[in-house]
Every structure is written in structure tokens, then in C-alpha cells.
Amino acid sequence: MFRQLTFHTLVLLILFSCQNRQQTREPMLPASGNWRGIIHTQGQTLPFNFRIEHGSTGGIELVLINGEEELPVQDIRISQDSIFIPMHIFDAQLLARFSNGEMKGYWIKNYAEDYAIPFSAQHGATFRFVDQPQPSEVNLTGRWEVYFENDSGKRLAVGEFNQEGNNIRGTFLRPSGDYRYLVGEMDRNALYLSTFDGEHAYLFTGLVSNDSISGDFYSGKSRHEKWTAIRNESITLQDAHTLSYLKEGYTTLDFELPDLNGNPVTLNDPKYENKIVIVQVFGTWCSNCMDETRFLSDWYNENKDRGVEIIALAFERKDDLDYARTRIEKLKTRFNIQYDFLFGGQNDKSYRTKALPMLEGAVSFPTMIIMDRAKNIRDIHTGFSGPGTGEHYTDFVSEFNTFMDNLIEEQPETQS
Length: 416
Description:
eight-stranded antiparallel beta barrel, Lipocalin
């Protein structure tokens, strides 16, 4: 109830606080062109870039920009000098008042209790962190061995950066996926990187000394970790095909979960008989899942007549089928998804374990499980390195296509 009161109070303050002074005015539009936004969190300024485009019928579209990635946002509403921006597939939004090329408001996660972080934006700015940085003293292009550290211990990652002058792009790869498109600058020996996709806001800062980096990682409202890195061109992560595995005695999955209409579904249903089935463990709140879903949707639409099916098991922010349906339908529309969705419950380990008790290891979001026509599991792939990882993504696509082509061509009597 407190979160709801807080949310509605913010809406009222932002959307209606100034309307008494503007009853006779026509609704305005924020300026078209480039904007620089800032999430003000944990005492830090987390910048991101976006573009506003005016439509011919009076509406507007906003495009979130992270390097070469552009995420369009529609269904924007304007009331006088206030703007409501839903964050495309995610259950989050930007609410702000705008005037004279500025915005001030909040980034809100609708499903989270009391999650409203101050947001501001300036029209016309195209830089990310520093408008006129000092010449970089180093070039970070290459591969780095990275450790993130918090109270729970250290986690290995691989940093891959490409630097041109002061501008730097790249990502951090982890066993469970990647931090997607990171964009920023070098200012002498200071490193700044960020990304904002509507659901996740990441800020990385660091100081570079010779071939080492030490810095801080900030995520959203409260997450903070230290990180260190050393240049290591040969560093690798554990094979994504070995992180999750079947418990002894199991050869397949066995679940009964509701579809979006509440009807129970199992792998024994006639639709999946003698079909190769890919089971995707995912959530609509997960950015790596978004990347994997976009890939799988395109692949399925091209290959669905070859005797294959995909079932996505959704674990959402709430254990509520009606809520899950609204989020999944939004995702399906956005990526033209034709395959099946089942609801596994809340994105908590206990729900995942209950739905898939035969899986062991680092089962994360996303995890992809591939079964042959006899429903024997042939591969389990944990995490997803999306298009922001460059050659890692293209290598995955090539490997996946080869694996699936061979599996589809197998005759039933040759399957193990």
C-alpha cells in the first residue's frame, strides 16, 4: 500500500502540479533531437543518451541509445508540460516535467516497493560523461581479466573494450550473460562506462594504472561492488554448456505449468509429440533474456515448419498469472513471438527448483534446454552473450544453427 501511495503521489505531483496555471494552453511537446539523461542514484550521476522524434500526427517516439543499440519506446503520453514514458517491454517508466529543453522527474519500477529514483535530462547534448575530456593516457582496447567483489565474495568476468581516442565501448562477459552495450569515455586515466535499457541502469567507474584498473560498479538504486582488472588476452570463462546439468538418473524434463490462459501444459501434449523442443528459462525483466528471445523468435519463425517447438518458462517479478500475462503479451507483440509461453511463478530460486527439480548447477536467466524428438536432453546452455558482445554472439549463432540443423536431420533410430 505504501508503494502504491508513493507512486500515485508522484504521478499527481508530476502530471498535475502545474496544470492550474496552464488550463488554456495546448499540450506541448518536448523538443525533438538528441537528449542526455541522468539517473541520480547512490550519490552518482549515471548518464544515458536518447533521441526524441515527433510524429506526423502529433505523437512522439523516444529512442534509448547505447552505442549501436537503439531501443524505440512508443505509447508515450503527454499532459500539458508532463510526460509519461513506459520503458518498452519492461514494467518501468520515466515520469517528468519538461520546459526550455529540460526534463526533471523520476525513473520508477512499477513492480518494486518504493522504487523511484530522480531523473533529469538536457536537450541537445550528445556526449555521455564528459563534454571535453582530457586526452586519454592509455588505450584499453583488448581483453581484461575482471573480478567484481561484494560481501559475498569475488566473481570472475571478462572485460572487452574498444577505444578510439577518448571514446570507449565494450562489455563485461559473465558465465550468466553479459552487461550488454556499455558506452563511455576515458578522461586522462579515468574510465567511465554506462548503459540504460529502461529496466537496468549500470555505471562503471575506474582508474587505470599501467595494465590494471580498479573502480566501482553501481546498479540501480542500491547495488554497489568494487571491481579490478588486469590485461589478459587469453582469459576465458567456463563453457556455457557445462554450467547447468541434469541430476543423476534424469534424461529429460518433466513439468506441468499453466499457459497464459491458465490451462496446464506438459511435454506429453500432442503438440510436442515427435518434435524437437527448446525450453527457454527466462523472465520479461531480464535484459539478456530479451536478447535471447529476440534471437529465438526470429529463428523459430524461420524454422517452425522443420519439426521444432519452443516453450518459454516465464518466471516473473510477481507470482501472479494475470500480471505475468500482461508482461508476456507486451514482449510477444514487440518481437513477433509465435512460440509458447508457460508461467513458472516468481523469479525466485524456490519456484524454479519446484518447476525444474531435475536441473542442477548454475541455472540462471536465461537458460536454454534442447531436447531431441524422444525428449532426451541434448544440450543445456546457461546465460546468453547477446549482440553487444560482438564475435561471441556471432560465434553462438553459428554454433546454434549448426547444432540445430544436425539435430533436425537426425533420424529417430540414431538418437541416443
